């Protein structure tokens, strides 16, 4: 089954990513609401075809912890990627409402299970674990998106990467992570930063008086790793994060070990009303954002 732009009816803008817009769309043939992500790339047709082909393995990526993939296509030099619509959006939009520790435990559990699925079932490393890539739906389910399935896409995104916040592990920055440059352990580091950011509401290396991005990089490589505030989080939660943020990548636990950590064992056993938390946090996000602006005509809708 081939998905195409002519089947899409653009409903609204969901967000602006580093490489393009994400739209909420209605897919007429299936009558399914989807999220359509645009990735602008300066690539030739062969490279674009390669990306679409490599993304195809995502059809096999069915897991309750991974955002469903519906298909991809390209127009000119943009790749369009259609996926499950997650009503409450990404974690960065939801944490300003505050995340109780029990909810944080459930979120972490889902992320670790998602990462383990990618590793064990598809043999892929996420490469970009951060709050904007953790999505929540109205049932309160937490799923991962934006992982590195396509080598071709990874390469061209790496070339154009201009992030100002680095979730990169120290070994990646100093280049000791091997020729491939990325290992499972590096994702575990990013997971640790993601948990602290979700808990505290801000990126852990922000606001320590940096004047430029080099200071931030220096702090990651030479400074002590950040911690969860022990005044507000249990010993188990703090210890979990400390394990993820071990500067020695070889000493970081693998996913199985993380799942056996007392904090996640407790999270697995606990009952938490995730649906209620998600709907409150999303309502607060909408209230802060204010009424949505006038109907936006995105450039995608002119290309039927
Ligand atoms: P980034 O480049 O920062 O990772 P993305 O391009 O992935 O950002 O997405 C931009 C924003 O669009 C996200 O922060 C998220 O809030 C929203 N978004 C992305 N995918 C979905 C989805 N499947 N369902 C709902 N909202 C989404």
TrEMBL record:
GO MF annotations, alphabetized: ATP binding; MAP kinase kinase activity; protein serine/threonine kinase activity
Keyword annotations of the record: ATP-binding, Kinase, Nucleotide-binding, Phosphoprotein, Serine/threonine-protein kinase, Transferase
A cellular component term, taken from the record's GO annotations: protein-containing complex
PROSITE patterns xref list: PROTEIN_KINASE_ATP, PROTEIN_KINASE_DOM, PROTEIN_KINASE_ST
Any Pfam family the entry gives: Pkinase
Domain of life, source organism: Eukaryota
Enzyme category, top tier: transferase
InterPro entries in the record: Kinase-like_dom_sf, Prot_kinase_dom, Protein_kinase_ATP_BS, Ser/Thr_kinase_AS
Keyword Transcription among UniProt keywords: no
Catalytic function, reaction form: L-seryl-[protein] + ATP = O-phospho-L-seryl-[protein] + ADP + H(+); L-tyrosyl-[protein] + ATP = O-phospho-L-tyrosyl-[protein] + ADP + H(+); L-threonyl-[protein] + ATP = O-phospho-L-threonyl-[protein] + ADP + H(+)
Domain Protein kinase: 8-264
Keyword Ribonucleoprotein attached: no
One BP annotation, GO: p38MAPK cascade
EC number from the UniProt entry: 2.7.12.2
Binding site for ATP: 37
Family: Belongs to the protein kinase superfamily. STE Ser/Thr protein kinase family. MAP kinase kinase subfamily.
Name of protein: mitogen-activated protein kinase kinase
Species of provenance: Coemansia guatemalensis
């Amino acid at each position: 089954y081939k998905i195409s732009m002519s089947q899409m009816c653009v409903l609204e803008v969901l967000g602006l990513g580093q490489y393009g817009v994400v739209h909420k769309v209605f897919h007429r043939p299936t009558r399914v609401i989807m999220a359509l992500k645009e990735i602008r790339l300066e690539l030739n047709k062969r490279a674009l075809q390669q990306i679409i082909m490599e993304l195809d393995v995502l059809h096999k990526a069915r897991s309750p912890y991974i955002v469903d993939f519906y298909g991809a296509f390209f127009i000119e030099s943009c790749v369009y990627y259609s996926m499950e619509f997650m009503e409450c959006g990404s974690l960065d939009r939801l944490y300003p409402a505050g995340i109780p520790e029990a909810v944080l435990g459930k979120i972490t559990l889902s992320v670790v299970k998602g990462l383990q699925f990618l590793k064990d079932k598809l043999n892929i490393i996420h490469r970009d674990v951060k709050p904007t890539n953790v999505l929540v739906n109205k049932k309160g389910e937490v799923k991962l998106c934006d992982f590195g399935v396509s080598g071709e896409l990874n390469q061209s995104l790496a070339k154009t990467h201009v992030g100002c916040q680095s979730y990169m592990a120290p070994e990646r920055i100093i280049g000791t992570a091997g020729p491939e440059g990325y290992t499972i352990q590096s994702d575990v580091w990013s997971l640790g930063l993601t948990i602290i950011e979700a808990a505290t509401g801000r990126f852990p290396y922000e606001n320590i008086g940096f004047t430029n991005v080099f200071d931030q990089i220096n702090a990651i490589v030479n400074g002590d790793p950040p911690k969860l505030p022990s005044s507000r989080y249990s010993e188990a939660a703090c210890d979990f994060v400390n394990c993820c943020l071990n500067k020695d990548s070889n000493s970081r636990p693998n996913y199985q070990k993380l799942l056996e950590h007392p904090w996640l064992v407790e999270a697995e056993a606990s009952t938490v009303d995730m649906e209620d938390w998600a709907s409150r946090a999303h309502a607060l996000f909408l209230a802060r954002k204010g009424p949505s602006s006038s109907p936006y005509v995105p450039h995608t809708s002119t290309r039927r």
